[in-house]
């Protein structure tokens, strides 16, 4: 059986900032999940902490020679904090998805998180942050689907979990904790399994 080559691209969540152990981050967690359903897998992480959608082009250039079967892209939070217009960020994401698809990869995108649930966001501005996050996610979903990618957590199910449990945030109260990564993994894993089944 083919060993699934899994590439993780994007920002600090793809990289794993906030997790207590490397094993708790997305790449290793997705490899374990695939192996648990009988698919041997290996992972390379091309994600960079602080990355925006504009940085995806470089990551794709680095990832494509490895010929990944599945590429997971987690991006959008830094576009939101830097006030990048949603259509601009989504256009750059769409370009990345298209290049990865052209290279033969199935692409799973985890769109921007809802930053309004971040604990240090003042309550008075949360409606504005929620609106911006919603617009960003919608634009990213459209761009991903238009280029033949797949969307994980399209309904934002992780948002409710993070809003309800502060332990899902790491000590910086921005990035996920290991428990938070476990929640994100539960939303990503089914889409990654389905993508891997196409190889």
From TrEMBL:
InterPro entries: Ester_Hydrolysis_Enzymes, SGNH_hydro, SGNH_hydro_sf
Gene3D superfamilies: SGNH hydrolase
Signal peptide range: none
Alphabetical list of Pfam families matching this protein: Lipase_GDSL_2
Keyword Plastid: no
GO molecular function, one term: phosphatidylcholine lysophospholipase activity
Statement: the UniProt record of this protein carries the keyword Hydrolase: yes
Keywords, alphabetical: Hydrolase
Domain SGNH hydrolase-type esterase: 8-183
Domain of life: Bacteria
Protein name (record): SGNH hydrolase
């Amino acid at each position: 059986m083919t060993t699934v080559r899994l590439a993780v691209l994007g920002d600090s969540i793809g990289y794993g900032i906030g997790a207590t152990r490397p094993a708790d981050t997305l790449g290793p967690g997705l490899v374990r999940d695939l192996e648990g359903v009988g698919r041997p897998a290996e992972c390379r992480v091309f994600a960079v902490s602080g990355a925006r959608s504009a940085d995806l082009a470089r990551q794709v250039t680095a990832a494509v020679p490895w010929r990944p079967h599945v590429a997971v892209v987690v991006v959008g939070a830094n576009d939101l904090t830097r006030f990048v217009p949603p259509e601009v960020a989504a256009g750059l994401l769409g370009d990345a998805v298209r290049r990865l698809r052209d290279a033969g990869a199935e692409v799973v995108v985890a769109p921007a998180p809802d930053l309004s649930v971040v604990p240090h966001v003042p309550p008075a501005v949360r409606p504005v942050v929620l609106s911006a996050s919603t617009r960003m996610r919608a634009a990213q979903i459209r761009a991903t689907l238009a280029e033949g990618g797949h969307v994980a957590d399209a309904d934002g199910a992780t948002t409710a979990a993070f809003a309800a449990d502060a332990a899902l945030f790491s000590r910086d109260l921005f990035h996920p904790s290991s428990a938070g990564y476990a929640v994100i993994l539960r939303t990503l894993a089914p889409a990654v399994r389905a993508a891997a089944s196409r190889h």
